[in-house]
Amino acid sequence: MADLLNIGLSGISASKTQLSVTGHNITNVNTPGYSRQSATQATRVPQFSGAGYVGSGTTLTDIRRSYSEFLTTQLRSTTALNSDVMAYKSQIDQLDSLLAGSTTGITPSLQKFFSALQTAAEDPSNIPARQLVLSEAEGLARRFNTVYDRLNEQNNFTNKQMTAVGDQINRLAGSIASLNNAIAVAAANGQQPNDLLDARDEAVRQLSSYIGVTVVPQDDGSQNIFIGSGQPLVVGANANRLEVVPGQGDPNRFEVQFVSGGSRQGITTQISGGELGGLIRYREEVLDSTMNSLGRLALAVSDQVNSQLGQGLDLKGQIGAALFGDFNDPSLAKLRVQSFAGNTGNARPLLNITDTSALTTSDYRLEFDGTNYTARRLSDNQLMTVTENPPGTLSFTDGSGRDQGIQLEVGTPAPAAGDVFLLQPTRRGAASISTVLDQPDQLAFAAPVRSEANGQNRGTGSISQPDLQSLLNLGSLTGALPVTLTYDAASGDFTLPPGATLTRIDPNDGTPATPPTFQSGQTNTYELTLADGSTLRLTLSGRPENGDTFNVAFNDKGVSDNRNALKLADLQNKATIGIDPNSPGTTGVTFSDGYGDLVERVGTLTAQARQDSDATSAILKQATDNRDSLSAVSLDEEAANLIKFEQYYSASAQVIQVARSLFDTLISSFR
């Protein structure tokens, strides 16, 4: 009877455990990361009898979880990838809407400004039309400022989000380290602590949503977690940490440091995957270059407009004043240079813009070893050639000899050996643009030079209005004018007063034409260099007679002259951005095309991000479904198990009841 009783008791015990495991599964159906558990049974060692071996019941051998390391690893990696893409997409969607919007982008304001210039050029003496140009210029400057503010807000949000994500990473790293310790202790008896393993897997999965990780299992059941290029975030029961701090070169651009004990290592460029990787990737691929592109456009607009105004006369006959502020103001030039946090010197260099058409959208890193300067363009990591001429003034050219359009004034005190500087020529260009002209009559719409043929000429020769190519200053120009061109039939060319030169050129490329003398009956293009060094371009045509004269003089009657206004309006369609000084005319884009390229690039990246989001979301769902198909709890299945193990329990109890009845019958037979 005792054997039968023990068999029943073993069944009772096994069925009770099976019911407990089933109940545990049901109550954890909504627990994140929980893996369904099941109890494994085996027969006890049978007893030998004369007729053979008789079974002695059942025993529980293991309580295991439905788990696949491959599916868990797949889920972890797809979670990191999807979180990266979603963080990237959420930011670039906002940027795309900002830049391409009909009310938020730069294009509408740019078009309104040039439209106002076209209107004013039609009637250059019209004061209301001139006032509209000033208003639209102010609106354009404010639009640049507003877009920059939105981009700067995104940068600040990125910094804050990186800090918050870093805190979450440190919290989860500490939890994983604690779970590693608990698992190692619990696994010392040879059995796996299923719930602790599930909790750790879920913590690692959550960690992968913040940063890409590599998991390396250890013999004691713990897991080591590595990030970046192999930095150990968790080793056994010990956790290192990440710190998000202001950048060494640019404090407005936060960096990630890996902290282990007393050592620190910058790992920003090595991080990939997870929300942190997506934010860093967006900043490096999109945000930084967008701020630089927008700044370059603002600098080009202000430079080209101011330069053209400086080559004209206003309604008072004065040389044109600047419409936009000086972007090389020392207070602005100083902001373009960031000293690294570890610098030992006190140098405060100034970075001036020398040629806006040659500017790139890159930042630069400048190092000083105590004797020589080394510069590198960060967009493509290309080493620059640094030229110091005059002493204390640095210019930069790339490997093809292309000037970068910037010049650094080292100033005093000089940098110390080992000092490093971050040069950002265009980063704040859109923030600093502003209008400084408030008087409409000071807009220089008239050309400063006019020409006319002498009314007493006998021939049919004619002269065009001169096109000013370069100007030193108004005082020197007025001193060099007037200039009289006299046709000499004997030489077939024109004579000039001392100090002035006239060169017949090819109108296509500006090179000296062949033959160099005047060709009667044709349109001849000339470059006139005045005594002060100013240059004009004009045409002479027809058939002049010997002694005929043509006069080039200062334009003191330019109230209704719109030649410079037309040049200002033509800037809209002139290639002024991204020009290679070594091959002018073959490169460069207009203001509108420059901004359009930026919008197109962001739009393309946005479309790609949306496609990536759809793809990674589908992959993540598939990985989640694959893991759940094995590990998730099915309430229907567990309900069936409850009934099965309840019947199992009742049947085992019935075995005990039979054993008791048999025992009672045996005892009764001896009474």
Could you write a compact summary of the structure shown?
This protein is an alpha+beta fold.
What does this structure look like?
There is one protein chain. With 671 residues, the protein is of the alpha+beta class. It has three domains: 101 residues, no CATH class; 354 residues, no CATH class; 106 residues, no CATH class. The protein is 43% helix and 20% strand. The chain contains twelve helices and 28 strands. An eight-stranded antiparallel beta sheet has the order 12-19-14-15-16-17-18-13. A hairpin with a 5-residue loop joins strand 17 and strand 18. The mean pLDDT is 91.
Main traits of this protein?
671 residues; alpha+beta; 3 domains; eight-stranded antiparallel β-sheet; five-stranded antiparallel β-sheet; 12 helices; 28 strands
